[in-house]
Amino acid sequence: MIAYLSGKITFKSPTHIFVETGGIGYLLKISLHTYERVQHLEQCTLHTQMVVRNDGQNLAGFDLYGFYEEAEKELFEKLISVSGVGAATARMMLSSYKADEIKQAIATENEVLIQSIKGIGPKSAKRIILELKDKVGKASGDAHLLPSANNKVKDEALSALLALGFSKPAADKVLTRLTASGSAPSVEVLIKEALKLL
């Protein structure tokens, strides 16, 4: 099994990159989070995970997934161990939120956030939480909860509203109300909603 690859990036896109090492070019499927970390690099080292593809009863080949951070790879492995969660869905989850944010959502049983990810329905969200809650808690080693997935979005929205001339207390109050449900909308959506209330 290939644990990691180091080499020259010969092609990159938000969904996959080519890494050349030893005269061989490897196609690695990646998340948007990993793409953000490698998009300006010419060389990189990525942790890898091989996923076998089946076509019915027959082996159809395999895909190699690349991760800039070890924590992202470890969570990917846990996600694809859940019944009904394939590699494509796991990658979609890791493209939507950072690994720590997904761990936080699982640890706090935040079904709303998990269901906000494309391809995840109510049953899948419940199954992911049920099967991974203990594993994620043990893996993180955190006695306390990780920062909410909303924090980053809220902070960016607050900065934008302050730049537009709104007072911090008023803007913070509105943003707190809009993110109270536990969902994590995009910064743009959050700002638009806040502008309606300010």
Q: SSE layout and pairings?
A:
Blueprint: E1 4-12, E2 16-21, E3 24-29, H1 32-38, E4 43-55, E5 58-67, H2 70-80, H3 87-96, H4 99-107, H5 111-115, H6 122-140, H7 149-163, H8 168-178, H9 187-197
Antiparallel strand pairs: 1-2, 1-4, 2-3, 4-5
CATH superfamily of the largest domain: 5' to 3' exonuclease, C-terminal subdomain
The residue-averaged pLDDT reads 85
**CATH topology value of the largest domain:** DNA polymerase, domain 1
Overall number of structural domains: 3
Counting helices, strands and paired strands, the structural category is alpha+beta
Radius of gyration: 19 Å
**What gross morphology would you assign?**
globular
CATH top level class name of the largest domain:
Mainly Alpha
Helix content: 40-55%
Order of helices and strands: EEEHEEHHHHHHHH
Please state the second-level CATH architecture of the largest domain.
Answer: Orthogonal Bundle
| Tally of helical runs | 9
Beta content comes to 15-25%
What kind of assembly state do the chains in view correspond to? single chain
Query: Numbering strands along the chain, what is their spatial order in the largest sheet?
Result: 3-2-1-4-5
Number of strands: 5
End-to-end separation in angstroms reads 55 Å
Largest sheet: 5 strands, antiparallel
Low-pLDDT ranges: 138-147
